Amino acid sequence: MKWFLALLAGGAMPFAYAPFSFWPLSILSVAVLYFVIRDETPRQAFRFAAVYALPYFGIGVSWIYNSVHDFGSAAPPAAVAMTVLLVLILTLFPAAASAIHARFRGRSWLFNTALFASAWTIAELLRGWIFGGFPWLLVGYSQSDSVFRAFASYIGVYGVSWVLVFFASLLVVVLFAGNSKGGAPQHVKLARLGLLVPLLLLPLSGWLLLSVEHSSAKDTSLRFRLVQGNIPQELKFSRERLISSLETYMRLSNEDSEDVDIIVWPETAIPTSFKNVETVIDPFAQSLLEHGTEVLSGGFYRDGDNVYNAVRQLGGDRALYTKQHLVPFGEYVPFRLLFDFVSKFVIIPSSDLSRGSGPANLLNIKGENIGLSICYEDVFGEEMALSFPNAGVLVNVSNDAWFGERIAPYQHQQIARMRAIEFERPLMRITNTGVSSAINYRGEVLQSIPHSTEGFFDIDVTPRTGSTPYARVRNYPVWIFSLAVIALSMLFGRMTKNRHETV
Fold first, then answer.
1. pLDDT recorded at residue 338
2. Across residues 337-359, what is the average pLDDT?
3. Which of 64, 176, 306, 319 is most deeply buried (CB count within 10 A of its CB)?
4. Hey, what long-range contacts does 101-105 have (CB within 8 A, 24 or more apart)?
5. Model confidence over 2-44: pLDDT tens digits?
6. What dihedral do alpha carbons 210, 212, 214, 215 form, nearest 10°?
7. Which of 75, 68, 129 is nearest to 329 (CA)?
8. pLDDT above 90 covers what percent of the chain?
9. Predicted confidence band of residue 333 (pLDDT cuts 50, 70, 90)
10. Percent of the chain with pLDDT over 70
11. CA distances in angstroms from 218 to 264, 388, 461, listed in the order given
């Protein structure tokens, strides 16, 4: 029965995220997992959690197959093998967290739930760091529409994960701890009743914090135009289609653009070196600049032997930002001597890109500091925090066409929404094939272009000033607190362990 519950709960978890966005499922899913593993041995808890995590990630990151097979030209068996390998690696993190809880849990129900939340959160933090990090499907992202999102401006998405796992685990204790055929003893019932206080305080606190703001609107506004060319991925890097693609972007940019301040094209909208298309782009950019419109575009910047994934101001000062956090196996091959064999099975078209210099990722356009990120960089909130307090608006250019159109583009948009909440900044997100969207400082999507659609929209954006607590302290408090809980459990949990737990 427990095996089935673990499998069912893990299979339900991906539907808590976009595009399905049924966020209560994540609370229920984690609660079922805690119910299954709370009294198990470390080995058994590891196994149950691994069974839970297999469908969680197997469904949630199934889009990896699309990028490896459809665009990496890997044979189906090789694409399946690589996707399965990634899923198996991801399952280790929840499994390890569950085993740590089983190994060090003690007598206190309250402390045990904090231990599980801390172990889970440390596992997510490590997943976002090891080998460059893959912080996709963090539990906290599922709460972009719940009251728990209010904690993000204080403790970030990892802190939201901690709160959710703690809440879900505490819910299990209140409902089931101490149950027996003869009913729970009176003191156990009272202890469980006492746990209702923190259980109710968490959502109440989140609801109250929704009205608290750490930033304020400036007295200026900028009109942005986001342009989605919808160039199919299989044609995007074709030399024959280069001029046609540029003409698409220029046509959409020129249409009724007199009142637009900043036009943004997506990642590698110019799928070659900026220098290679200057004769085509310069007259276009200059004509827009004459009536006060700046254009930012993704493309490639070559400096000697180094090639960078970049965003450049096409006119004016030609300010440049070069991508700093590259995607492993997508933009570079880590440990090349060890993993170079991958290139025998998968085509990685941009695997030799250079890492941009940092940490500054601000471009001053029209007198406003724009905090830039390129594609995958926006999943690393701790790195984007380096833009603050100077950035008034965030811009992310991306190319989610690598990952198909069913799940990943919407998951990525949800991640961007959490960044907007963490920093209380409007975020303009523009992609090649969708979903492109304007997100306000509360993480709400104001306007968007559907997937697989050519188009643009204009929107007035008010920059903001001031820093959230998270922008100032980043993930350090969550690391320290979670590690402290685990350390205390290691020191004292085993000495006081008792199968008949009491508060």
1. 45
2. 61
3. 64
4. 101/37, 101/38, 101/45, 102/37, 102/40, 102/41, 102/42, 102/44, 102/45, 102/46, 103/42, 104/486, 104/489, 104/490, 104/493, 104/494, 105/38, 105/489, 105/493, 105/497
5. 999 999 999 999 999 999 999 999 999 999 999 999 999 999 9
6. 80
7. 68
8. 74
9. low
10. 88
11. 21, 15, 10
The angle that helices 152-176 and 196-209 make with each other, rounded to 10 degrees, is: 150
**Beta-bridge mates of residue 308:** 301
What is the rounded average pLDDT for all residues in the chain? 89
In the block, tokens 């297999």 appear at 54
What's the CA gap between 380 and 398, in Å, rounded? 14
Catalytic-labelled residue, pool 368, 375, 382, 501 = 375
**C-alpha span between 77 and 346 (Å, rounded):** 12
What is the C-alpha separation between 399 and 350, in angstroms, rounded?
A: 13
In Å, what is the CA distance from 445 to each residue of 374, 417, 438? 19, 8, 6
Domains, the chain, ordered by start: 2-213+474-493 (no CATH), 216-467 (3.60.110.10)
Contact 380, 128 (CB under 8 A): yes
Of the residues 236, 294, 323, 383, only one is catalytic, namely 323
Asked if 158 and 138 touch (Cβ cutoff 8 Å), the reply is: yes
Q: Look up 247 and say whether it is catalytic.
A: no
* Angle (CA) 165 169 173, round 5°: 165
Dist CA 115 CA 119 (whole Å): 6
Strand partners, 72: none
For residues 277, 278, 280, 286, the Cα torsion angle rounded to the nearest 10 degrees is 150
Radius of gyration from C-alpha coordinates of the chain:
24
Q: Which amino acid is at 483?
A: L
Residues 6 or more apart from 485 whose CB is under 8 A from it?
Answer: 111, 114, 115, 118
Copy the structure tokens of residue 216.
């304020």
Phi/psi of residue 185, nearest 5 degrees: -60, 160
Which of these is catalytic: 267, 294, 382, 501? 267
Cα separation, 70 vs 232, in Å, equals 12
What distance in Å separates the CA atoms of residue 146 and residue 148, rounded to the nearest whole number? 5
Beta carbons of 414 and 422 less than 8 angstroms apart: no
Whether 323 sits among the annotated catalytic residues: the reply is yes
How far from 376 is each of 67, 324, 354, CA to CA, in Å?
Answer: 14, 10, 15
Q: Are strands 427-431 and 393-398 parallel, antiparallel or unpaired?
A: parallel
Q: What residues contact 169, with CB distance under 8 A and at least 6 apart?
A: 30, 31, 34, 38, 112, 113, 116, 117
Residue 106 has pLDDT above 60, yes or no: yes
Can you give the length of the chain in residues?
Answer: 503
